[in-house]
Each structure stands twice: as structure tokens, then as C-alpha cells.
Amino acid sequence: MKVAILVAPRDFKDETVSRLQLFFGKNDIESQIVSLTTKPCAGYHGAVVKPAMDASSIEAGAFDLLLIADGPGVESLKLYDYRPLLDVVRAFHENSRKLAGIGNGIKVLAKANVIKDTRIAKTDGETERMVLLYRGKPSDDFVVSDGSIITASSVDNVPDLVAALLKQ
User: Fold this and answer.
1) What would you report as the CA-atom Rg of the chain, rounded to the nearest whole angstrom?
2) 44 to each of 9, 24, 39, 87, 127, how far by Cα in Å?
3) I need a labelling partner for 66 at 20 to 30 A (CA). Which of 44, 53, 95, 158 fits?
């Protein structure tokens, strides 16, 4: 299995990315960091990652899963309004590839209009409003796998998200 972990160019949640890489590595899942740029990206707590590629150039067939990581950068850079990224998310959905979102990264899935009638993990107020706006079904569960979409409330739920992915 091959996973693309999308991070904001700045202020992504460092602990989410490091936990994802740890759990993917333990389960022999190949992962690559992607972003809106190929320049080094700085996390909210100072971690720096070098993306393997620009997210807008990803082809849906190249990866089995596109995972949107959370963090303040999702909001400050409004990743959910970046049209080329939304097009990539839709391409994954249309090609029956898996999509995942953690925390406020779920907003990107919502804005790409791929969550209609899909159960979504428990989120905060603003993310939940966007989920409702795009006809997703908010849940009280912290990790939800519904069809090709997997969502998690926060970094604390990464082990369960990876387990849900492996179960599919």
C-alpha cells in the first residue's frame, strides 16, 4: 500500500505526521509527504519535512490513499479553498481511491464535495459546520471508516485510523 500524507506548507501538526510515519512504518505501508510546494515545510512545533512532490501533480493511480494532515496551517492557508488540491481529492474519489482526513484536514474533504451521505468522525464546531454544509453525517465516534473515506478526530486517534485502514 502506498500513502500520500498531505501537509500544509507551514504550521502542519508535527505530532500527527510523525505518528503517521511511525505507524505506517510499523505496518509496512509506504508513505510520502506531499504539499502545495516542493520546498521544505515547517511544522507548528518546528519540524521540517521535504515533500516528495507537489500535491497538485499527484495522479490518483499513483497512491492508494491520500491523507490530509491537520494543523493550524490548514486554516491560515485555507487549504480547503485551493482549487488544484480539491481537484486531486475529487480525482481520488472518482477513481475509488481511499481518502482520509484528520481534525481540521477533514474540511478539505468536505469542500471537495466528496462526503455527501458519509459518516464523519467527531470534529470541532467549525469543521462540523462544514461537514453539515456539504451533507456529511457527523458522528460521535473518534475514528470512522465509511466507504472509501476514513476520518479521525485528532492525532490521538492515529493508531485507530491506521487499524481501520488495514482492516479495509
Assistant:
1) 14
2) 10, 22, 16, 26, 19
3) 44
Per the DSSP assignment, residues forming a β-bridge with 43 are 12
Q: Give tens-digit pLDDT for 35-58.
A: 999 999 999 999 999 999 999 999
Contact by Cβ (8 Å): 60, 87:
no
pLDDT tens-digit profile of 82-138? 999 999 999 999 999 999 999 999 999 999 999 999 999 999 889 999 999 999 999
Structural class in CATH, domain 2-167? alpha beta
Neighbours of 164 (CB within 10 A): 17
Report domain extents, the chain: 2-167
Angle at which helices 158-167 and 14-26 cross, to 10°: 40
Q: Which residues pair with 49 in a beta bridge?
A: 41
Residue 29 CB partners (closer than 8 Å, separation 6+): 1, 2, 3, 162, 165
How open is the CA angle 75-36-74, to the nearest 5 degrees? 10
The three grid cell numbers given for residue 11, joined into one nine-digit string: 504550521
Q: What is the DSSP letter of 96?
A: T
